[in-house]
Write a structure and sequence with these properties.
Elements: H1 2-17, E1 29-30, E2 37-38, E3 47-52, E4 58-66, E5 69-72, H2 74-77, E6 85-89, E7 101-110, E8 126-130, H3 144-148, E9 155-160, E10 165-167, E11 171-173, E12 179-186, H4 188-194, E13 205-208, E14 223-228, E15 231-242, E16 249-253, H5 258-264, E17 268-270, E18 273-279, E19 282-292, E20 298-299, E21 301-307, E22 314-319, E23 324-325, E24 330-339, E25 344-352, E26 360-369, E27 371-372, H6 375-380, E28 388-391, E29 397-399, E30 402-404, E31 414-435, E32 441-446, E33 449-455, E34 459-478, E35 488-498, H7 501-515, H8 524-541
Parallel strand pairs: 18-26
Antiparallel strand pairs: 1-15, 2-12, 3-4, 3-6, 4-5, 5-8, 6-7, 7-8, 9-12, 9-14, 10-11, 12-13, 13-16, 14-15, 15-16, 17-19, 19-24, 20-23, 21-25, 22-24, 25-26, 27-28, 28-31, 29-30, 30-35, 31-34, 31-35, 32-33, 32-34
Helix pairs in contact: 1-8, 7-8
Organism: bacterium 19NY04SH03
GO molecular function: serine-type endopeptidase activity
Family: Belongs to the peptidase S1 family.
Length: 542
């Protein structure tokens, strides 16, 4: 009996320490079928499931909107390369995919204004270009008149392979079979009053749902349809929400992005965006290739290069693109650019084109220009596993037993320390902010996502859980733009890296199973050791 009790306790601890078991992100915002039922086979041929290569588990949804384009959420594919995943069309049962079509992705088109570091960014929309055309029924897109006709409680239907429950105490339940749920439409005025996170929602989204009926993790990017006498029309894209089944869901409004969608399914194929990662300041160049896959000529003229929105820091060295690119033709442009300051920014190649509703097309490079943190900082961090340390113009330095941001910052200046390529594990440290102004702050990002912000005289012990094989941690100390304090900086100490608690427990359980001949029962001594491990780690964090 003791063995069973310990196994149950350890199982609970494993659930609570796993990233999948949290009720959301740090702010409980989930990128998210709750309260639904199994869909009928062949009812939703245009349903797309995004999967890793040759895998049968979807991480996001989408909708086929033409013979070679899929509509999904930007947050599903930001940071992904086309070779990282593929699309399953007409998928119903992930264990029986004989009627499904698996197609590779050629290009990814994101909305240029989508903010990848935000859990609830507007413009959460993306188009996937497939490597080949498919002969499957495509979803019909809603127009503004359709969405305007909806009233409070109007039925909408959403589908997906996401969790049917998502609870840190009860675990999670991800189905193999496509599910659907009917949700009531909620007008924006009522939506904004439903939760503080919804107060600043804009025109590009709408809300739907009720307690116990919702989309959840894994449904992101999938469709929500309006239901009327003319049939089901694709009204929105599953974007985000607060928890699952507790509050309303937020959906990207398809009709709001009608022209953007049409521009990106016109048939011009090109690599729209690339993340250069951490780079050094200096001069560089990039080649851009454009292929006209449509049946009509496409205008491409007057290319220019903008660096962080500014002219004069880039030019075109080679341009073999004619002003009218013929159907089936290909051309390329080489753009030169200069990065002069340590900052995060974007280099944009922009071409004028009357072939597109926006009047132009854009391709861009995101960059993070930093410098080496120096040998003194490297020596201070030598106990950490292999990594690279970078800083911006306001360099971090070693101050006795501490590692601290630059002092003497002017108002609205930042001092950044970036640790790149940290392996999976837990990064712990003690922090102490020295500031007389309550809005001077230390913000911490893990792999581009904000995790914590500490203000004023805050001090304490903190642990970051790093779940990727290679992770980037950014410590960004900011002196508030209206700061009146004499000086302002943050100190870090006792910086350590260790294995994730869940990984340690898994290793102990595997070793115990080997020693016991695979019987599956955990020894009492091992169980006590696991409990002691959890207690020591949690007590230190407290």
């Amino acid at each position: 009996m003791k063995h069973n009790i310990l196994s149950a306790v350890i199982g609970t601890l494993l659930l609570s320490s796993s990233p999948l078991m949290a009720s959301g992100t740090d702010s409980d915002i989930t990128t998210r079928i709750i309260g639904g039922e199994k869909a009928q086979p062949n009812d939703w041929p245009y349903m797309a499931a995004l999967t890793r290569i040759n895998k049968n588990t979807s991480f996001c949804g989408g909708s086929l909107i033409s013979e070679r384009y899929v509509l999904t959420a930007a947050h599903c594919v930001v940071g992904e390369a086309p070779s990282d995943f593929e699309v399953l069309l007409n998928a119903y049962d992930m264990d029986q995919l004989s009627s499904a079509i698996r197609v590779k992705v050629k290009q990814i088109y994101l909305h240029a204004d989508y903010q990848k570091n935000s859990n609830s960014s507007p413009h959460d929309i993306a188009v996937l270009e497939l490597v080949k055309a498919v002969t499957i029924e495509a979803a019909e897109l809603d127009d503004q008149a359709d969405i305007d006709s909806l009233i409070y409680g109007s039925d909408m239907t959403t589908i997906g392979f996401g969790y049917r429950q998502y609870n840190g105490k009860q675990g999670y339940d991800k189905p193999k079979v496509l599910h659907q749920v009917t949700l009531p439409f909620v007008p924006m005025a009522q939506c904004k009053q439903a939760h503080s996170s919804f107060e600043k929602l804009g025109d590009g989204v709408f809300c739907a749902g009720e307690t116990g009926k919702d989309t959840c993790q894994g449904d992101s990017g999938g469709p929500i349809f309006s239901n009327d006498n003319s049939g089901k029309k694709l009204a929105g894209i599953v974007s985000w929400g607060v928890g699952c089944g507790k509050n309303l869901g937020v959906y990207t409004k398809v009709s709001h992005y009608h022209h953007w969608i049409q521009d990106h399914i016109k048939g011009l194929s090109y690599r729209q965006h690339k993340d250069l990662g951490i780079v050094r300041i200096g001069i560089d160049s990039q080649a851009f290739t454009f292929t006209n896959q449509s049946n009509n000529d496409i205008e491409l003229k007057n290319p220019k290069v903008l660096v962080d929105g500014r002219n004069g820091l880039g030019d075109i060295s080679i341009n073999n693109c004619p002003e009218s690119l013929a159907a089936g033709a290909k051309c390329s442009i080489i753009a030169n650019y200069a990065l002069l300051t340590h900052r995060q920014g974007r280099v944009v190649l922009e071409l004028e084109s009357s072939s597109f509703a926006e009047g132009k097309i854009s391709a861009w490079l995101d960059y993070d220009a930093l410098q080496d943190a120096g040998q003194e900082v490297a020596n201070y961090l030598r106990a950490l596993p292999e990594h690279k340390a970078h800083t911006n113009s306001h360099k971090w330095l070693v101050d006795g037993d501490y590692l601290r941001s630059e002092s003497g910052l002017s108002k609205n200046q930042n001092s950044e320390l970036v640790l790149e390529n940290l392996r999976r594990g837990e990064l712990s440290f003690i922090y102490s902010i020295n500031s007389d102004d309550k809005l001077d702050s230390l913000t911490i990002y893990v792999n581009g996502k904000r995790k914590e912000t500490f203000y004023n005289q805050a001090t304490g012990y903190h642990t970051l859980e790093l779940y990727n094989a290679h992770n980037t941690v950014r410590f960004d100390y900011n002196r508030w733009k209206y700061s009146k304090g004499h000086d302002s900086y943050v100190k870090l100490s006792d910086i350590k890296h260790q294995k994730l608690t869940s990984d340690l427990i898994n290793e102990i359980l595997i070793e115990q199973a080997k020693n016991s001949g695979g019987g599956g029962s955990i020894g009492f001594g091992a169980g006590l050791g696991l409990l002691a491990l959890m207690w020591m780690r949690r007590s230190r964090q407290q």
